[in-house]
Amino acid sequence: MTDTAAPAAQKSGPRISGAFHRLLAFSGLIALVVAFSLASPNFMQTQNILAILQATSVNGVLAIAATLVIITGGIDLSVGTLMTFCAVIAGVILTYLGLPMPLGIIGAILAGAASGLISGTVIAKLKVPPFIATLGMMLILKGLSLVISGTRPIYFNDTPGFNQIALGSVVGQIIPAVPVPNGVMILFAVALIASFILGKTALGRYTFALGSNEEAVRLSGVNVDRWKIGVYALAGGIVGVAGVLIASRLNSAQPALGQGYELDAIAAVVIGGTSLSGGRGTVLGTLIGALIISVLANGLRILSVAQEWQTVVTGCIIILAVYADILRRRTL
Amino acid sequence: MLNRRTLLGALSAVAMLAASNGAAFAQDSYDIALISKGFQHQFWQAVKAGADKAAAEFGATVTFEGPESESQVDRQMDMLAAALSRNPDAIGFAALDSQAAVPLLQQAKDAGIPIIAFDSGVDSDIPLSTATTDNVAAAALAADKMAELIGGEGKVAVVAHDQTSRTGIDRVDGFVNRIKEAYPNIEVVSVQYGGGDQLQSTEITKSILLANPDLKGIFGANEGSAIGVANGKQELGSQIVVIGFDSGAAQKGMITSGVMNGAITQNPVGIGYETVKAAIGALKGETLPPIIDTGFYYYDASNMNDPEIAAVLYD
């Protein structure tokens, strides 16, 4: 490589390495799928593939939200309980107040965005570190979900069609052979939109810039706080979508659920090659990371591997994935 | 190069898993998947032990899985979906939320996989049978023991885990109704709920004791409630009769030391055993009763070490 080419290469560095890592994660996913298919004839069945996708939908959406925040160099520990909170809000609007379904969906998403706005404001304006701010939000939202719901699940029996949001299949009506659940299509739609925002909009550019060098962005006269709050609010809105998905899938808002789900989301983000130190990451990588987690869980179950060993294997894969990333960066 | 290395590594790891699993496929025995409400709790491990016992006895392979906490309804659905994909001969299922499970249970029914419910029932006619404790009868036995220990008269109270779960409702009703019907001289002065949380149940117990100085006894309707009641009794230096529910190392210790007079234990080993037995019965075309009562026992310091009782207690 000549000296003149070096700056150009450096400039496009994140992009190239992102693509490379995506390849790495992707080949890992393919390897798992091939291995499980060889190991059990029950794995590569349409119904099972759909079950894997269904299992990915909620974690995938959460992980996309987490990706945006992590690219800024922050972290959002509240995604799991915020998801539950949004589901409870949908329950209040639809079941307690008896309002029409679209209002419940919009309400859940707005509740998520509002919570993200609060987290972002606490982080940007009050200078509370993201880890602490979102840890606090995680507990606040967990408590509020229990308070609002009266610690009981809220069922959506009065809203016919609500469970079709995640469980129904528009694709299946067109192509009956592959009834891909709507929840999965919503995951893909969220991924496309988030990719577009990251790649093509000012918000996306600032998301990366904040994670690479926040001080430089600030010194160049940009209102850093505003963009940071914007990213958290967007992530919160995406978590709201996950809240609708899980409520629809269970046909109920389960107020005690959600804590711990943020770790699965963060694991998907990390396996997908997004750096926890910020400035680097892709939505596609996260999507693949979330799929790897689901494929692993599903495949090991199909092979009747004991549950305690499933956990061990999953832990190993997470470490291996990140180690592979470190090796790759060293060799570049 | 790296790609290939990781790929090979993953392949060989899974191949090893597959090899160890191949043996199971080779056997000509029933494959039964149990999806439980939990996994690492001692109660569920005891259910698993019972299932393994039946599996060994009747020549079946059993897998046992459950989510980390009883709130993770969606994780349980993923487990049930994966179990369905595995295409087992039968499924045992303890529903965390019976509504959420109905679409998957319907899928199992359509695939011709018999379902046996265990621990708590499912609001659906799909399960062929339910292996569970008769909680109403178990709590009535607690009421009988309470009456016996307090001499058939006086005030008693109940500290239960919640007013919404099936076990919460059944145990409170079972105890209160038995007292009303059989012991006219005993009055249940208070029924309070502490969420099964030891600390909260302790505080509740203390307030009940302070409000009713002449109280004779309290029934703690699950493990956490019972331990909380005994703690509250100790903190106030009270001498009331305490009857608990379930076992576990803490509760067993309290019974040995005399803080708790005795407790009702379910038979988790029996729940696991009967579930697998019923599944195999269903596969052989036998007709099953809608409810299989897996039994319960009253234990105290005098009979804790009897083989029959020790077998159903767990730490």
Automatic annotation (TrEMBL), chain A:
<keyword id="KW-0812">Transmembrane</keyword>
<feature type="transmembrane region" description="Helical">
    <location>
        <begin position="77"/>
        <end position="97"/>
    </location>
</feature>
<feature type="transmembrane region" description="Helical">
    <location>
        <begin position="283"/>
        <end position="303"/>
    </location>
</feature>
<protein>
    <submittedName>
        <fullName>Ribose ABC transporter permease</fullName>
    </submittedName>
</protein>
<dbReference type="GO" id="GO:0005886">
    <property type="term" value="C:plasma membrane"/>
</dbReference>
<feature type="transmembrane region" description="Helical">
    <location>
        <begin position="184"/>
        <end position="208"/>
    </location>
</feature>
<keyword id="KW-0472">Membrane</keyword>
<keyword id="KW-1133">Transmembrane helix</keyword>
<feature type="transmembrane region" description="Helical">
    <location>
        <begin position="20"/>
        <end position="39"/>
    </location>
</feature>
<feature type="transmembrane region" description="Helical">
    <location>
        <begin position="130"/>
        <end position="149"/>
    </location>
</feature>
<dbReference type="GO" id="GO:0022857">
    <property type="term" value="F:transmembrane transporter activity"/>
</dbReference>
<feature type="transmembrane region" description="Helical">
    <location>
        <begin position="51"/>
        <end position="71"/>
    </location>
</feature>
<feature type="transmembrane region" description="Helical">
    <location>
        <begin position="229"/>
        <end position="250"/>
    </location>
</feature>
<dbReference type="InterPro" id="IPR001851">
    <property type="entry name" value="ABC_transp_permease"/>
</dbReference>
<dbReference type="Pfam" id="PF02653">
    <property type="entry name" value="BPD_transp_2"/>
</dbReference>
<keyword id="KW-1003">Cell membrane</keyword>
<feature type="transmembrane region" description="Helical">
    <location>
        <begin position="104"/>
        <end position="124"/>
    </location>
</feature>
Automatic annotation (TrEMBL), chain B:
<feature type="signal peptide">
    <location>
        <begin position="1"/>
        <end position="26"/>
    </location>
</feature>
<feature type="domain" description="Periplasmic binding protein">
    <location>
        <begin position="32"/>
        <end position="286"/>
    </location>
</feature>
<protein>
    <submittedName>
        <fullName>LacI family transcriptional regulator</fullName>
    </submittedName>
</protein>
<dbReference type="InterPro" id="IPR006311">
    <property type="entry name" value="TAT_signal"/>
</dbReference>
<comment type="similarity">
    <text>Belongs to the bacterial solute-binding protein 2 family.</text>
</comment>
<dbReference type="Pfam" id="PF13407">
    <property type="entry name" value="Peripla_BP_4"/>
</dbReference>
<dbReference type="GO" id="GO:0030246">
    <property type="term" value="F:carbohydrate binding"/>
</dbReference>
<dbReference type="GO" id="GO:0030313">
    <property type="term" value="C:cell envelope"/>
</dbReference>
<dbReference type="InterPro" id="IPR025997">
    <property type="entry name" value="SBP_2_dom"/>
</dbReference>
<keyword id="KW-0732">Signal</keyword>
<dbReference type="InterPro" id="IPR028082">
    <property type="entry name" value="Peripla_BP_I"/>
</dbReference>
